[in-house]
Amino acid sequence: MRRVIWVGAIVGVIAVAGLALARTGASRAADTGTDGATVRVVRRDIAAQVKATGVIKPRVGAEVKVGSRISGVVKRLHVQIGDSVVQGQLLAELDDRDLVALHDQAAATLKQLEATKRYAEADLRRKRELFAARSISQSDLDVVERELAVSEQQVEAARASLAYATAQVGYARITAPISGVVASVATEEGETVAASFAAPTFLTLLDPSRLEVWAYVDETDIGRIRNGQTARFTVDTYGDEEFDGRVTAVHPKAEIRDNVVDYVTVVQFQRPKNRTLRPEMTTTVRVALATRSRALSVPIRAVHWQGTRAYVLVPSPRDKTVAPERRWVTPGLKDESYWEILNGLGEGDEVLVGDTNAKPEGKP
Question: φ, ψ for residue 154 (rounded to 5)?
Answer without folding.
Answer: -65, -35
